[in-house]
Specification:
Layout (H helix, E strand, L loop, with lengths): L1 E2 L10 H18 L4 H19 L14 H16 L3 H7 L5 H13 L3 E2 L31
């Protein structure tokens, strides 16, 4: 998976950046399944996954920055754990995300509207069962030292 077009640099061309952002927001709002924050998180996770897979050369050529749906989901899961900790399931659920397949649905929505691209080998099934909200450990307890 990869972005078909780079997000425009708003300093170089403010109009192009805001037009594309409005177009993406319209697609998201018309679809209605997921909150805008989920798509922003998807974008961050994709950038992280590309950097993890391709290292220093990431971003130099759009066609060379492909990653699998599974790798993207693993990156999103790890980012959610790091950023939100025990609150990750609550936040993802608030955004409409129940598991990795939802990120796949988001990716394919963006592909359908020309904001992302895929290869012949990519499939929505690549996103299935990589993780669900139950994978986030929420069974923590705090033990206090007993006074003697």
């Amino acid at each position: 998976m990869g972005w078909l077009r780079k997000m425009p640099n708003e300093q170089e061309n403010p109009q192009a950046g805001s037009d594309q952002a409005r177009n993406i927001e319209k697609v998201i709002m018309d679809d209605g399944r997921y909150r805008l924050e989920a798509f922003n998180f998807l974008h961050e996770g994709l950038a992280r996954a590309v950097k993890d897979v391709h290292g220093a050369k990431a971003g130099q050529g759009d066609r060379d920055n492909h990653i699998s749906g599974q790798k993207l989901c693993e990156s999103l899961r790890d980012l959610a754990r790091e950023r939100y900790g025990l609150m990750a399931p609550v936040i993802l659920r608030h955004w409409g995300v129940q598991g990795s397949i939802d990120f796949g649905q988001m990716v394919y929505l963006l592909i359908e509207h020309g904001f992302m691209r895929r290869t012949e080998e990519d499939s929505l099934e690549d996103f299935r069962d990589v993780f669900d909200l139950g994978d986030f450990d929420t069974t923590h307890s705090i033990r206090l030292k007993e006074d003697k």
